[in-house]
Design brief:
This protein has about 400 residues and is an alpha/beta fold. The chain has eleven helices and 19 strands.
Length: about 400
């Protein structure tokens, strides 16, 4: 099905313009729209003055009964062949609505460029990214941080991000908090990062994305939005997240935005060691990039460490994990990068090999000690460590594994 779009039809002789917007087809196949009819004619034959807008209401384009009733009601208001006009409008609109996107030829071309990043390595231009993690770990604040980076753009940032050459306008669709909360956190980030203010458009949302898609598309067009943040997936959907229907409706709306999207999602509690996006597996399938966020924080501390793990990358190789250390005060949020291999509670999200390397930085360990430290079987340790040994990244000395040294490999 094609993406809903406005349709405009002009009858010059009758001095009429019919504009259709917010076209939607229900499950019964009925196509409905908001129809506005305007005229440039000033007076009728009797000298009565016309209003510029002579009709403005919802209309069922698929109903013959609605057409006949419309023509009957409009004839006393404005003299025209309304039966012919409305019949032609309905036929043309239905045909054009169902035509879909135009067919293009895909072939070898020297002018084709690889996908472009808005913010490398996280956000791809015109592609959806999902950022998921447990509740209350700072996903919204991190999304705001990314917003500031792309909207400035912050070229000389010390967070390791590569930003677009030009400023990218950002729209934040908030289904969970309030305007004041977002404003407060943006203010604290600006002060903590010591950057200039960057404007972010904000919209407090109540209804599902698919129900307000036309209004949101208008905002995107009017403000040349390049990045849309949806906070959160759970509240932006119109159905149970565990159903494929929820993913279908959400993706149908998402594809109409024609902008990069950062979708904040929660985690499934089924597997604590391998958490996934809460809901249908199709939510991961529709994203081109998926990142998991994990956090560690001591009770009562004003600092926390965040780790981002790339769980899916359709258009590139998987990126290395990213680590950030955040410090909070009443007036500011400061951020710096950190090595998650050195942060207890975060390195568990690394691969087995990466965890072994991180632990061995603190000193040699036996297979049994590594297995106990990491909570996996000795056999899994031996398999991963042997692969590292072949690559020259670890060596074995007696019963212990250690990082390479100038003394050479023993045992």
């Amino acid at each position: 099905m094609s993406q809903p779009k406005p349709f405009t039809y002009v009858w010059q002789q009758e001095e009429l313009t019919i504009h259709l917007a917010k076209l939607r087809e229900n499950r019964d196949g009925d196509l409905k729209a908001e129809m506005e009819i305007t005229t440039t004619r000033r007076h009728d034959q009797a000298g009565n003055q016309y209003q510029p807008i002579i009709y403005d209401a919802k209309f069922n384009l698929s109903s013959n009964r609605a057409r006949l009733q419309f023509a009957k009601e409009m004839l006393p208001i404005y003299e025209a062949d309304w039966e012919q006009i409305i019949s032609e409008v309905c036929q043309r609109a239905k045909r054009e609505f169902r035509e879909g996107e135009p067919v293009v030829e895909i072939s070898i071309s020297e002018g084709v460029n690889p996908p472009k990043y808005l913010l490398k390595p996280l956000l791809l231009e015109n592609r959806p990214m999902v950022l998921y993690g447990d509740s209350g770990i700072g996903k919204s604040n991190f999304a705001l941080l990314l917003s500031l980076c792309v909207s400035l753009p912050w070229h000389d940032n010390y967070l390791g991000f590569e930003v677009n050459e030009h400023r990218i306008a950002v729209l934040y669709l908030d289904y969970e908090t309030e305007t004041d909360d977002i404003q407060w956190n943006v203010d604290r980030l600006i002060r903590g990062l010591d950057i200039i203010e960057a404007p972010i458009l904000y919209r407090r949302c109540v209804f599902p994305l698919c129900d307000e898609i036309d209004e949101i598309k208008d905002i995107i067009t009017e403000n040349n939005i390049g990045l849309v943040i949806i906070d959160s997936l759970l509240m932006a959907c119109s159905a149970d997240l565990n159903t494929s229907e929820a993913a279908r409706q959400f993706n149908k709306a998402l594809r109409q935005l024609r902008a990069a999207t950062l979708i904040i999602a929660h985690t499934s509690k089924q597997d604590e060691k391998a958490k996934t996006i809460y809901g249908s597996a199709f939510f991961k399938a529709i994203a081109r990039s998926v990142w998991e966020m994990r956090q560690t924080q001591e009770v009562g501390e004003d600092t926390l460490d965040l780790a981002l793990f790339n769980r899916k990358a359709n258009l590139s190789r998987l990126h290395k994990p990213l680590g950030f250390h955040l410090t909070f005060t009443d007036n500011a949020i400061s951020v710096r990068t950190t090595d998650i291999r050195a942060v207890e509670g975060l390195r568990q999200g690394l691969t087995t090999q990466a965890q072994i390397l991180a632990i061995l930085r603190e000193g040699r360990m036996s297979t049994a000690q590594l297995a106990e430290e990491m909570g996996i079987t000795p056999n899994a340790i031996n398999v991963a460590a042997s692969r590292l040994r072949k690559g020259g990244k670890v060596q074995k000395r007696g019963d212990d594994w250690e990082l390479p040294s100038d003394k050479g490999e023993g045992g």
